[in-house]
Write a structure and sequence with these properties.
The protein has 200 residues and is an alpha+beta fold. It has four helices and eleven strands. The chain has one domain: Nucleoside Triphosphate Pyrophosphohydrolase. The strands form three sheets. Strands 1, 4, 5, 6 and 7 form a five-stranded mixed beta sheet that branches. The protein has a three-stranded antiparallel beta sheet with strand order 3-2-8. The radius of gyration is 16 Å and the shape is globular. The termini are close together.
């Protein structure tokens, strides 16, 4: 079965599974329903190779939001974007030079609410391996690929805690060599792992 079909099948089968929204717990008073969240979209770009990988970026150190952190290509949804998918593809093209017509869109998965006021929807897409991607110098310090199987393995998730704005908050991180994937990116990966139950 082709990678795109495997992902579609796994996403469809996982439709009824319970997923986590670490920063969107309704018991969290800082994220009540009356908070207006900024809609955003990210692209989970899965490389079409025998051992698929996921393309991730490291944000530049001078970014106003989340400097130096590891993230999916993506950002806020603009009024001109026709859809969540269109926003994710536009952002990936702007940030890493990924041509939109090289992405086979699989579909959207669970939205994620962040403590910084965004509602982020991941869009899963399959891309050819070894594309010559060009990071946007102002936004992306580096880009790299991590095996999908590694990111989907629950044994690789570490739970941590930090005090933030006078409250203790828990978060997950995933270590890939010296790279620390944490916060919203790690949480969305864990959501995706629970949704896909990869390998299906």
């Amino acid at each position: 079965m082709m990678l795109a079909d495997r992902l579609r099948d796994a996403l469809a089968k996982g439709g009824a599974r319970k997923t986590i929204l670490l920063e969107g717990d309704p018991r969290d008073a800082s994220l009540t329903d009356d908070i207006v969240l900024m809609p955003a979209a990210v692209l989970v770009a899965v490389t079409d190779r025998p051992e698929p990988g996921v393309i991730l970026t490291q944000r530049t150190a001078h970014m106003r939001r989340h400097p130096g952190q590891i993230a999916f290509p993506g950002g806020r949804i603009d009024p001109e974007d026709e859809s969540i998918v269109a926003a994710a593809l536009r952002e990936a093209e702007e940030e890493i030079g990924l041509p939109r017509d090289c992405v086979e869109v699989i579909g959207e998965t669970d939205s994620y609410r962040t403590i910084t006021g965004f509602q982020v929807t991941p869009v899963i897409g399959v891309v050819p391996p070894d594309l010559q991607l060009v990071p946007h110098v102002e936004e992306v310090a580096d880009l790299f690929e991590v095996p999908l199987a590694f990111l989907m393995e629950p044994g690789n998730y570490l739970e941590q805690a930090v005090e933030w704005q006078g409250r203790q908050r828990r978060y997950h991180e995933i270590m890939w060599g010296e790279r620390r994937i944490w916060g919203a990116t790690a949480a969305m990966l864990i959501n995706l792992a629970r949704r896909l139950s990869w390998p299906g």
